[in-house]
Write a structure and sequence with these properties.
By secondary structure, the protein is an alpha/beta fold. The chain has helices at 15-18, 40-50, 56-68, 128-132, 138-153, 194-209, 222-230, 243-254, 277-287, 340-350, 357-366, 370-389, 406-412, 430-439, 458-462, 467-471, 489-501, and strands at residues 7-13, 30-34, 71-73, 78-79, 188-191, 214-217, 235-238, 261-265, 290-294, 311-315, 329-333, 394-398, 422-427, 443-444, 454-456, 480-483. The chain is built from 17 helices and 16 strands. The protein has a seven-stranded mixed β-sheet with strand order 5-11-10-9-8-6-7, sandwiched between helices.
Length: 508
């Protein structure tokens, strides 16, 4: 296909209409790629797996600006220059809020701006979507992003409004801090979604170390494996995530095979198996490959995985937010990594803060009570796990507290950390699984990490076209995944017991 048939259209602020406000408000910017319909499969693959699209909040913001005439097309259609290794950079500027704001490290704000609403009231007096839906403050958005990064770093633990929370002293001794020497909030990078953080971590490693195959260890969230397979030289997949897989990897390494990085989840989704990070770290140090750990399921209030990883990624869309109304992702660099200086150089040169400011404001507010929510969710999930484990129709319950990988989870579990809010169960009979699911009075859907309990026939949804392939790794078609929420414990207990009682046969 001739590259000249692909065009980029850039839309930005109408300067005449925004000249008086462009130092105070976020300006609408979006880029569109126009291509022949024959390229749709490739475009869909890229958009689906990399998380490089726009969020709904940004789309709404820009659509309204286009209708009002404050956003206009700023470039005529022109041929796209292919950039296979790095991908298109949407805006050639330090960060997405405006020049002059990103005076901190790595394109981040240093948090010096003063934040009040028009009438001088603190932000908490007004609802976010109403207050900032049309007049999005550059200063407030920058402060929100700094607060998110400090919360991820573990140095912001209070549930207070901006800007007061940023004035709290850094909590360097708290058990939730990332206690790695040299670590700071400047090692935290924000993205528009979790997959975008993973995709860019992979891309940064290839930029720094060269394009080599990677290892996907453990049965993963489907898009992670696709990123490694489709946007690089491929991946060796170890779907069982057990010691035998590590034995095989070690044999390959001893035989001279070389890898860019090992990607894993802690714990995995949906089987909740925990990788042996200590052994993986040892192999990585000996044979010179990086380790990228996705801590979305475990979350940093329960586990501390940074000492074993070169990069830690997470989906902030999930329990960090909880409300299910905003997307976000993060990547953290380990300053003790042998690759730190090289990766830092790549991130400083290539990183774009493209998390939409409206999303940042919403995400910051949602995450203020992250600590208290995690404790309750951990408690509820353990209760549901015990109820399911006691029922004869249930073949197996997958939860980090039980099973042959518990020791690996416990090795990274914080002193007061729990086992998370995600679990899954398989049934002896498909008919029993169907009856149970139909009678389970929770919300149903494919996501996780919501403040309300969410149930999903995960394998049927995610791997319907490859059920036999998934089954060989323990992901059976009868598997139901549960993301446990903040409901009253007794109400949850009743809902699960009611569904179990509806199963007509308890034959194992």
């Amino acid at each position: 296909m001739d590259a000249s048939t692909v065009h980029i259209l850039e839309f930005g602020p109408h300067l005449d209409k925004t000249a008086s406000t462009n130092t105070k408000l976020v300006l609408p910017r979006v880029t569109a790629v126009v291509y022949p319909k024959e390229l749709w499969p490739s475009a869909k693959t890229f958009w689906q797996h990399t998380g490089e699209g726009v969020t709904s909040r940004r789309a709404e913001f820009c659509h309204r600006a286009l209708e009002e005439g404050t956003m206009v097309e700023q470039s005529s259609a022109r041929p796209m220059t292919p950039r296979m290794s790095k991908g298109p950079r949407r805006y050639q500027r330090p960060m997405s809020v405006d020049h002059g704001v990103a005076d901190g490290a790595n394109g981040h704000s240093n948090g010096d701006e003063k934040l009040v609403t028009e009438n001088g009231a603190p932000d908490s007096a007004l609802f976010v979507e109403e207050r900032f839906g049309r007049n999005l403050s550059v200063e407030f958005a920058a402060q929100a992003k700094l607060a998110i990064r400090k919360r991820i770093a573990g140095s912001l633990t209070t549930n207070t409004d901006l800007p007061h929370s940023l004035d709290e002293p850094t909590d360097s001794t708290h058990e939730r801090s990332r206690d790695v020497p040299g670590f700071s909030v400047d090692d935290v990078y924000l993205y528009s979604g979790g997959m975008n953080a993973i995709y860019n971590a992979h891309r940064a490693l290839m930029t720094y170390r060269g394009a080599s195959p990677s290892v996907m260890y453990g049965f993963p969230y489907v898009d992670t494996l696709k990123v490694l397979e489709k946007f690089g030289p491929g991946a060796t997949f170890y779907g069982h995530g057990n010691s035998a897989d590590l034995d095989d990897l070690e044999r390959r390494l001893e035989g001279g095979e070389q890898y860019l990085a090992l990607f894993c989840e802690f714990p995995g989704n949906p089987l909740l198996r925990s990788p042996d990070l200590k052994r993986i770290r040892g192999l990585a140090d000996k044979y010179n490959f990086a380790v990228v750990v996705d801590e979305t399921i475990g979350n940093f209030l329960n586990v501390h995985v940074l000492p074993y990883a070169d990069v830690v990624v997470s989906s902030l869309t999930k329990i960090f937010s909880g409300d299910g109304n905003v997307m976000g992702g993060s990547a953290i660099l380990n300053p003790q990594s042998r690759y730190y200086s090289g990766l830092k150089h790549v991130y400083n040169a290539e990183y774009e803060d493209n998390q939409f400011e409206g999303d940042s404001i919403c995400l910051e507010r949602n995450s203020r009570d992250f600590i208290s929510r995690i404790k309750r969710i951990d408690h509820n999930a353990e209760l549901i796990t015990d109820i399911l484990r006691a029922h004869p129709a249930v073949k197996q319950v997958n939860y980090p507290k039980y099973g042959d990988t518990k020791q690996f989870y416990d090795a990274c579990r914080l002193p007061n950390g729990g086992y998370g809010g995600l679990l899954s169960a398989t049934f002896h009979k498909m008919e029993d699984a169907q009856v149970f699911y139909d009678h389970l009075q929770t919300q149903k859907g494919p996501s996780l990490g919501t403040n309300f309990t969410l149930s999903s026939p995960f394998v049927l949804l995610a791997h319907y076209a490859e059920l036999d392939w998934a089954a060989q790794y323990g992901c059976e078609a009868t598997l139901i995944r549960f993301s446990v929420g903040l409901e009253e414990t007794e109400a949850l207990k009743h809902a699960f017991e009611f569904a179990l009682e509806a199963i007509p046969s308890h034959t194992s």
